[in-house]
Amino acid sequence: MAEPGLRVDLDESSGFSQASEDASPNVEESVAQERIARLHALAREQLSHLLTHNGSRPSSISQIAVLGSPNTRHSFLLKLFRPVLDTQDGTLDGVTKTLINAVQRLRDLDIFDRLHVELDKCDNAPDGCLAAIIRVREKSRLLARTGTDFGNQEGSAYASASLRNVFGGAETLDLSGSVGTRTRTSYEGRFTTPINAKPNSIFELSAYAATRQQLHASHELGQRGISAKIKHLSILGVHEIGLHAVSRRMENIFPAAGPAVLLESPASIKHAITCSILRDRRNDAILPTQGYSLAVSGELASSLLGADHDYAKVELAGSMHGSLGRWAVSAAARSGLLQHTNDNTQPAMHDRFFLGGPQSVRGFQMNGLGPSSGRDHIGGDIFWAAGLSATRHIHSQWPIFVQWYLNAGALALSNKPGLPLGQRLARPSIGSGLGLVFKHPAARIELSFGMPLVARQSDAVRKGLQFGIGLEFL
Description:
Layout: E1 6-10, E2 16-17, H1 29-54, E3 58-67, H2 74-85, E4 90-91, H3 92-108, E5 112-121, E6 129-138, E7 142-151, E8 154-164, E9 172-180, E10 183-195, E11 198-214, E12 219-234, E13 237-251, H4 259-263, E14 267-280, E15 291-301, E16 311-324, E17 327-340, E18 372-373, E19 376-377, E20 382-393, E21 400-412, H5 421-425, E22 429-439, E23 444-454, E24 464-470
Parallel strand pairs: 3-6
Antiparallel strand pairs: 1-2, 1-5, 3-4, 5-6, 7-8, 8-9, 9-10, 10-11, 11-12, 12-13, 13-14, 14-15, 15-16, 16-17, 17-20, 18-19, 20-21, 21-22, 22-23, 23-24
């Protein structure tokens, strides 16, 4: 039977640990951390002893109180803890595990920064009836940021604000805006909410507007759109399905624009359904050294949905990471196919694939590979790309690495006359080089010196320094 007044705290590593509210803020940090560690170990030992000797005793939790959550709806908390209350005629071990799972889901919702759990006997109740008191502290509901970004041949200034737990059900409202050298203006509003109080199932609704220079194709592209997505995390990975409605308009077409750009429809509407699955088993999302990732995505646009274009699009991506001595070695590959599904319409240039740049095939300009019209690069409907890289710490205490890379890729338009499609895809553009990688907590930053080893006549090459910032690199 649970000991009266036993106080436990859900630890990040899952399980229970003793809460340490007695630690004085004036105590040296190292001493305080040591005391907390001892209290955690003692609480784990107490709970282990308790469950070992009493785990099979009939028990149930009939009362749950969540204290310190004035901005969280009672109905939302009741939905989250309903499995605990519905566990009747269970054992102490079983109801404790059910409670742990529920409190862990509460933590994963990211609306509290501290959770303490107390288990005690219910007053005036039969033996085996337990009450749980969960003391929480809500995180700040408003977070605002401003700053500047530089990377990928672009500089911008941004401002963003996030409102957490908007309606008391772990909803989040994000608002952001930026102005820059290539992305002239960008505004986005995004609302997310857990489905059925489950942090692994999220509904997202967003609206955005942006105007961005398309230097590879001699124009600016203005986009206005809304999208609705459902994201779900399972043992297979992250699943996503979405509906999108986007209005696009080509603006400020440059005087030197090629014929293909001039012939492109200046305005188009896209209504599409998308789906994807990502299985990520890497040990780090920024600069992995072990594991693998696999991703499959698809998109279907149709005039039946009110779109101007009909096409189906699929893309595959994968990577593997390991160690070779003191070097971390990574291999990655991507491929994609775009197929029109109506002979009366063709996919817009903006729906095609593009290759080239610091996050794609290095040693070439951004989107500078493949079919061209004049000086413009107009993308393709089939591509493949692969990369091999090796990184090594410069100093074990610094987040800076030296890197060698080799990238290759081919992009083609299947209906373009000339060499057979197979031959065009079998003649990739290749780039290689050395550089430095800075591992920032939010992104990977690269400064490399590279050069193209193999290039086509239409490719826009970039010899020398190349700067890139982002999460996904080839």
